[in-house]
Amino acid sequence: MENLNILLVDDEQSIILMLEKVLKKEGYTNIKTAFTAKEVIQQIERNSFDFIVLDVMLPDGSGFDLGPKIREKTNAYILYLTAKTTDFDVLTGFAMGADDYVTKPFNPLEIVARMKAVQRRISQSTTFNSSKLKSPIYDFGYFQVNEITKELRVNEKTINCPALVYRLLIFLCRHPNRVFTKMDLFEAVWGIDNIVDDNTIMVHIRRLRERIEPDPSNPRYLVTVRGLGYKLVSEPNV
After folding, report:
1. How many domains does one find in the chain?
2. Are residues 26 and 67 located together in one domain of the fold?
3. CA neighbours closer than 13 Å in the CB half-sphere of residue 49
4. Residues 46 and 87 reside in one and the same domain
5. Residues 40, 9 contacting (CB under 8 angstroms)
6. Please, which residues have CB within 8 angstroms of residue 83's CB and are 6 or more apart in sequence?
7. CATH code where residue 159 lies
8. Do residues 155 and 215 share a domain?
9. Are residues 176 and 215 in the same domain?
10. How far apart are CA 60 and CA 52, in angstroms?
């Protein structure tokens, strides 16, 4: 199993120790920890991470405030730990760069399930690239995606794209002009069955539109098919 580089962030040592124990039992050994916002910044400046478990409430700051700062340094998958469960709090987390969230108290095996899902997506993407990919570049005119370099260019400018938003984009690029339901997208991109939140899909669709659309409020490429789902069209109506 290819190991993930993991950063665990929580001010409660008992939670860190519990997660470390469970993750090591599952075969994950590249684990670093942080207990404060300051330590998080130090860690991401020194190390490269694939998966960050980030508590919202830290003694010297908010995990929500840390999200954009982390995104400046890495496209790692960010999973928030939060005791807050309102729609506003969840949407705030996504707006601040989160890929997913788990509410406290939680089962550590739920964290493991999400890590394994991310790992499957990475593995499947690598296999696809090496054995099946004929053309690594998807060209939609206004924007292009290079699946080898993981680069998104929009209107001749390179655009930063968080990991999960990028995986959503790649999945849609591989299947242009096909309609996918929210469940289809969740299973294909998140890789987790039966853990569906409409907000998760809607927020990531919005984040993707903000990157690839000339006018995100009136999408031409990533369009909504009323009552069915979403599709990425290769020849948009101008």
Report:
1. 2
2. yes
3. 30
4. yes
5. yes
6. 56, 57, 103, 104
7. 1.10.10.10
8. yes
9. yes
10. 18
Instruction: Using the CB atoms, write b or e for 175-195: b if 16+ within 10 Å.
Output: eeeeebebebbbbbbbbbeee
- CA dist., res. 65 & res. 63, Å (int): 5
Q: Could you list the residue range(s) of the whole structural domain that residue 110 is in?
A: 6-117
Residue 238: pLDDT band with limits 50, 70, 90: low
pLDDT tens digits, 218-235? 999 999 999 899 999 987
Question: How many residues appear in the chain?
Answer: 238
Say which CATH number the domain at 96 has.
3.40.50.2300
* Domain annotation covers residue 128: no
pLDDT digits over 32-77, tens only? Answer: 999 999 999 999 999 888 899 999 889 998 888 888 888 878 878 8
Residue 19 within any structural domain of the chain: yes
| Partners of residue 34 on adjacent β-strands | 9
Would you place residue 93 in the very low, low, confident or very high pLDDT band (cuts 50, 70, 90)? low
Question: Residue 181 has which token pair?
Answer: 């339901």
Q: Which pLDDT tens digit goes with each residue over 35-46?
A: 999 999 999 999
Q: How far is CA 52 from CA 44, 166, 214, in A?
A: 10, 17, 31
Residue 143 phi, psi dihedral angles, 5° rounding: -140, 155
How many Cα atoms sit within 13 Å of 222 on the Cβ side?
24
Q: Are 101 and 79 in contact (CB under 8 A)?
A: yes
Q: Distance (Å, rounded) from C-alpha 93 to C-alpha 127?
A: 31
